[in-house]
Amino acid sequence: MHLSTHNWMRAEPLALTLGRIKKYGYESIEISGEPAQYDVKETRALLKEYGIRCWGAVTLTLGERNLAARDEGQRARSVDYVKSVITMVGELEGEIVTLVPATVGKVVPDGTEEEEWTWVVEATKECFAHARKKGVRIAVEPLNRFETYFFNRAAQALALADAVSPECGVCLDAFHLNIEEEDMYEAIRLAGKRLFDFHVADNNRFAAGLGQLDWPKIIGTLKEIGYDGAVTNEFVAPVDRTPAAKYPDMVERNPVDIPPEQLKFIQDHGSSLLTEKFYDDQMRITAETILPLIK
């Protein structure tokens, strides 16, 4: 196992992110799934400069991106988007694309269970075929019920992976597992060798170590199943807008150059634009919590 991180949680130059995570012992990055934001040649040069490798990317399934959409054209455009993320990861010599099939924040279905399952399986198969050509593995990720109606538990994600290919895997996230699973450790064991990626944030979605999750037991269970991939930091710090705020200086008040879709995605997760100091602290705390356990 090694420590990795997402970078979609704060809009900042990639070089700044890479320098930050390098000093705290991260080995790789799961880059934001927005290929238009990254020039592959420049990104590869930065990764080499900082000695950080690309582990993969997560699809930012926002706006009209939805493999479960009733509209065939919308599904086709969503597949094209996922393919573009896969292509980017392949060009960056990454290994994984974490695929969230349905629009994050959408809680009303477009069709019956049978219709949507057929649409998603067909779309994911097309994405999987493209990934095989690019030498990239697909890991489908279940989210909690407040972020998606489509699927929320490890068993459901495995059902989709099984419907696609024996070589399709799953990604699990400790934050979502804590909400949805009867036993999060059994969910990890159920995934077993099909677990291709593992995301971490505490039960309050702050950095690992700032909540109630049992990180020694979680990492111990990953070791038990022989997991040797990334443990990927994905805190999405909730903003407290009351006088009781524990971190009153966490929100960036200065103008930030960020695409409106990305800002909405962050805000829809209950977070906001974060100050560099707060963000840096969260990165450090995650590393201090996880690294001693995986080494």
From TrEMBL:
Record-linked SUPFAM superfamilies: Xylose isomerase-like
Family annotation (Gene3D superfamilies): Divalent-metal-dependent TIM barrel enzymes
GO MF annotations, alphabetized: isomerase activity
Keywords for the protein's UniProt record, in alphabetical order: Isomerase
Regions crossing the membrane: none
InterPro entries xref list: IolE/XylAMocC-like (IPR050312), Xyl_isomerase-like_sf (IPR036237), Xyl_isomerase-like_TIM-brl (IPR013022)
Protein name as catalogued: Sugar phosphate isomerase/epimerase
Source species taxonomy: Bacteria, Pseudomonadati, Pseudomonadota, Alphaproteobacteria, Hyphomicrobiales
